[in-house]
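Late entry, written up from scratch paper. The run itself happened at the end of the previous shift, but nothing got recorded in the book at the time, so transcribing now.
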Amino acid sequence: MSSIMRAQQDMLERMNQYAELAGGSAIQPAAQLGSGAPVSGIAGSFEQALRSVDAEQHKSSSAMAAVDSGKSDDLVGAMIQSQKASVSFSALLQVRNKLTGAFDEIIRMPL
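Output as recorded:
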């Protein structure tokens, strides 16, 4: 077998491996991996918000991938979905920063 054919065979094997990895369910949104029992209180609310933002990020990624691969021609919809994911992530970061600041203030309070 010539070196060119060997290189082509190696590249074909790698492409098949990547196709198997891309088609598999190794990476899933956090909303699909839940334990089933909802947690109440502030922790449950924050976890629910975190899972919602994660689901938005995955929707955005799949919409952009569909446009990039040519499976969809809805560029405007993909961009809107991307902006929704960006805004929800920014809002989550703001909430996290406010909670962290409040926690720091509580820690510094004199007894």
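Residues 40-111 form one domain.
(Scratch paper discarded after transcription.)
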